[in-house]
Amino acid sequence: MPRILQVLLAVLVAAALAAMITLLLGSFAPARGAEGTPAAEGPRILSARVAPPHQLRLRLSGPLARTDPANFRLSDARAPDIALAVRSAHPTADGVVLETTHPLRTAETYRLEIADPPLTFTVRPSRWALLFTVLLSSALINNFVFTRYLGLCIFFGITRKRDAAVGMGATFTLVMVTTGTLSWLLYRFVLQPLQLSFLQILVFIGVVAFLVQLLDTVLKKTHAGLHKKFGIYLMLITTNCIILAVPLLNAAAGSGALESFALAMGSGLGFALALFLMSCARERMELARVPASFEGLPIAFALAGLFALAFMGFSGLDFFR
User: Fold this and answer.
1) How many CB atoms lie within 10 A of CB 267?
2) Which secondary-structure segment (H or E) carries 146?
3) Is the pLDDT of residue 34 over 70?
4) What's the pTM?
5) H or E element, residue 96
6) pLDDT for res 255
7) Which residues pair with 83 in a beta bridge?
8) 266 FRET partner, CA 20 to 30 A, in 31, 69, 85, 87?
């Protein structure tokens, strides 16, 4: 029986990894950002890339008739009515380089309009920048434990010992990435086409429960010591707010494969980091002189509050300034 479960787990993980690799390769295909093109004989915008802090590099299929700043209009996709002033435009061998007065960010989406010839183009974020931003934001800036206060049951229960916390962090990250990927696939290719989005909570809970039950059985047969350290908290992953919040956030935001994978990985790593830091602090606290009224959970809550204050220092952090 254990061998069968191991084979099933290996097949499931391999399928999830294959799906993630396929989706990521598809996500890194060249983007087609143009929303409108002129006549066949006119120039076209082939690509656009933000070069922080003030440059936008355009690659064109041919030279433009006008390269003065008044021929270009740039705006943030979230506020298309507010134009970002173009200070200068410099022709290059294969396009134009625009200089703006407003700082540009590689993780933002911009809308470019050219008056002569009439062209519109959506400047998409750099995919690597988007991946890096979502990953670090979910792990540090918007850490689910220290900034959103989710998953506290496992957080306080498993952080008494460092080795158990490290094992739970690795297990949770694996489950988070696998369930996030499978949930995204089911939502995008099953629930949405069949107009069954209202069943997303039940489907996501079912996916999480299946994977956690499978993992619990495998650990019980193959790593009994680690399974005993986890105790009831391994099964509590099924009802963990974080592991259900990530697929729901992806579904609500209509995230693509890249953003969904990055959010799942970042939230798992952020939770693992929170467990590790808290377990280190609580082990040190056992050697400290703590008042009797603060022993146990009270001092643990105080430590969690201090960590939350420390993580507030990441607020507003910009990785691509």
Assistant:
1) 31
2) none
3) no
4) 0.72
5) strand 95-100
6) 84
7) 75
8) 31
- Identity of the residue numbered 134: V
pLDDT at 31: 41
Q: Is 290 left (phi over 0), alpha (psi -120 to 50) or beta?
A: beta
In this prediction, residue 80 has a pLDDT band, given cuts at 50, 70 and 90, of: confident
pLDDT, tens only, 236-295: 787 778 888 999 999 988 888 888 999 999 999 999 999 999 999 998 888 888 888 888
Q: For residue 268, which of 305, 249, 243 has the smallest C-alpha distance?
A: 243
pLDDT tens digits along 86-97: 999 999 888 899
Contact 10, 25 (CB under 8 A): no
Query: Which residues lie closer than 8 Å to 154 by C-beta, 6 or more apart?
Result: 168, 172, 233, 236, 237, 240, 275
Where are the chain's structural domains?
Answer: 39-117, 128-314
Which has the closest alpha carbon to 269: 200, 180, 203?
A: 180
Contact 137, 225 (CB under 8 A): no
How many beta carbons lie within 10 A of that of residue 136, not counting itself? 18
Pick the CATH number of 39-117 from 2.40.30.20, 2.40.50.140, 2.60.40.1220, 2.60.40.1120: 2.60.40.1220
pLDDT, tens digit, 9 for 90 and up, residues 47-73: 888 888 888 999 998 888 888 899 999
Q: What are the CB-based long-range contacts (under 8 Å, 24+) for 124-132?
A: 124/31, 124/33, 126/49, 126/50, 127/27, 127/28, 127/258, 129/319, 129/320, 130/258, 130/259, 130/262, 131/258, 131/261, 131/262, 132/319
